[in-house]
Amino acid sequence: MTPRNWLDEVRFSADGLVAVVAQAARTGEVLMVAWANRDALELTAQTGQAQYWSRSRNCLWQKGESSGHHQAITEIRLDCDGDTVLYRVDQTGPACHEGTPTCFSRVVTPHGALAAPSENLAHTLTRLAATVARRATEQPEGSYTARLLAEGLPRVSQKVGEEALEVVIAAHTEAGPRLASEAADLLFHLLVLLQARGVPLDAVWDELESRKR
Fold first, then answer.
1. How many CB atoms lie within 10 A of CB 188?
2. For the segment 68-93, what is each residue's pLDDT rounded down to a tens digit?
């Protein structure tokens, strides 16, 4: 029996469209929501680039065709009802036309107003790596990170070694919360070491991805 084409499982609306959510494959951050018809979905699967349907222009469009902010598809998923499609993507540049990393850049406050988010939705380590990079550039007074980087690679490497030893000791002699604290210290100092050597965190993510078992 020939399996059904996945497109036959999509429940398009009366106007032939389906909602598409674009999600950053690496961080899980929701980037944007748009629409697609069958042709857009089929072209996305064929080309590996996110394709959508513009309701205002009444035509197909590829994300990044004018801005250069492309979305390379890593996976396409269909929800349980078939009425929403998920594009998991590697985003180049900002996803939003306003220049923000995600279109979801406003938070509803407890008072019902809209405000900028206190932090982005990227992975915690990604946000922390960005903070370390800013400390290296801005060198604010009183910053431990800036001071440690200024002391040079040998000192940063020494701290990583010390923190690694603390993790091992905590694993064998301390309770769970202490181990979690020491592990956090080690991860932080590893990020500082990567910054000191000019190695982006994305390179670590890529290496981890290649080691999937």
1. 20
2. 999 999 999 999 999 999 999 999 99
